[in-house]
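Standup notes
- HV: blocked on the assembly model, inputs below
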Amino acid sequence: MKSDTRAKAAYRSVPVIEKSPTGIVGLDEITYGGLPKGRPTLLCGSAGCGKTLFSMTFLYNGAVKYGEPGVFIAFEERPEELIKNVGSLRYDVQTLMDEKKLAIDYVHIDPNQIDESGEYDLEGLFIRLGFAIDSVGAKRVVIDTVETLFGGLKNQLVLRSELRRLFNWLKEKGVTAIITGERGDGSLTRYGLEEYVADCVILLDNRVEDQLSTRRLRLVKYRGSAHGTNEYPFIIDEQGITVMPITSSGLAHDASTERVSSGIADLDAMLGGNGYFKGSSILVSGMPGSGKSTAAAHFANSICASGKRCIYFAMEESPQQIIRNMRAVGIDLKKWVDKKLLKFSARRPNLYGLETHLAAMHRDVSDFDPAGVVVDPMSSLMGAGLAGDVHSMILRLVDFLKTRGITALFTNLGLGSAETTTTQMQVSSLMDTWLLLYNRESNGEHNRQLYVLKSRGMAHSNQIREFILSSDGIKLREAYIGPEGVLTGSARLAQEAKDRAAQLTRQQEIERRSREVERKRREITGQIADLQAQLANEEHLREQVVEFEDRFAADRIAMGLSRQAQTANSDAISARKAPKARSEKK
Amino acid sequence: MTDQDGYNLRLYVAGQTPKSIAAIANLKKLCDQHLNGRYEIEIIDLMKNPALAQRHQIIAIPTLIRQLPEPLKRIIGDLSNPEKVLVGLDIQPT
């Protein structure tokens, strides 16, 4: 314990590189804090891969978020062009310049105008840079792109030694600098700038595969700091630059026992009564028109109804179209959109490459922080890349959503049997719950059916249910198993009618029987009453006779007593005669 | 001498560096030899007036700019090669 704290203290005393945050989402994560403070960083890449926007973002964020003014030395674009270009990212550079938080110096070199005679140096550039830095008190500097000098000046020896001096000078000034460089053949930069800038090198790349381009970023080196080494996709859009550190395939996400309703009461019942697990991934696969989107809309609706947020990634339909269609089955999604609980993010799959799709989804999810996500349909992403890539992308998306505890529902379109189409992407194993929807043809009709192919960690129904799209959503019907399989549609209705008739007959039989029994009961009760009355009568008669006999005996005793002449004999005789008299009476 | 064919030259230097001093000396010598009083030289020390570096698009030091006659011409270096300077300034050697 003691040695542990000592080690920690020793560790803390070791000087570590200070970092200057770029404010670019994702980049500060993979660099563990930003670019090396007070040192130059080389940003290289081929034309059009976003070097200028990248470096301007660095300056803009520095001035706006971190209170570090900046200087932009532009060799290629005039200030007014530059301001307009970055205006597309909603960067108000002009205001920053007016507030003396940013300075732009445009260095114009026209090789046709310049003759060389004798020795020279680039002190003029240093003076300009120094002047610009002092004018705003800059902590950040961008030089974009210094290589233009190579085209303008003939004396390469002077140029190289001056560049070396420039980078040292920047270090001495203590400014955090980005030097951009054009990508060369087989080397990072055309003129070997990486020789001079050795602290941090970032490579931007814009690759086109299958006519779709994906921007990627890689930290080639970062001296004195740990850093992510992979290629990270990044996007440039109206929200600026976002780098996506999405390569983690961790399996450390929590497994929640909380449940999330599917939005379909009958389906919840099939899934052990409570719906999906929170944070699980659900695959809804089926043929066209089998009701996948409706199932997805139910899910989104139920998330929003519980007061949580949901993102609906629509790949094939526009949000308005989805809202209209779902209204027809009684789901009002518009209401949730208005309440800002539901966000539609509609992008055509072939709009850009898979990585960019993933990056965009990543950012949407990070920004909106939803409890549920719908990707409808996932299968259309097949059009945006190769099967292996799609699988890898879905894997990372699932992992990402799981680590955030987001319940995700993916729909998947299959033309053949559901099993074969889904294994194309081999995503079924990533999914926790798999619902199969299909249209089965029987008796000249197509009827929708649903069953839960798998659902990890819960007891789920094994039944195939018919499901009906009614004006208030999906209803699942108990399946009828007939001699020729499951009965659906009108066959089921016929069966139901038959059942109703049979039930009616049974009901009537029961009622008839009950009446019969009632009648018998009354009859027998009557008979019982009769017999009881008879019995009572008999009883009564017997009592009368007994009474008479008693009185007779008493009379005889009274008579004997009155004669007073009775012997013991005569007593005995009279006792013997008495029963005789009684029997005579009968 | 008229204003039309007169030379208006500006030499940008940065402090009293050997290159700057050499450039000034070389320029004066050259003008005296070939321009015969038809010239004006303005020496601008950017160390004293750094804002001018940006305004006049100066990168290299020393830089000589021919303001007049038009068009504008630039020669960088300490002007140690007189032939090149003469060609650069479009001066017919006398």
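- HV (later): unblocked. Chain A touches chain B at residues 105, 107-109, 113-125, 127-128, 130-132, 149, 153 (CB under 8 Å). The two ends of chain A are 121 Å apart (CA to CA).
- Next: hand off to the docking folks.
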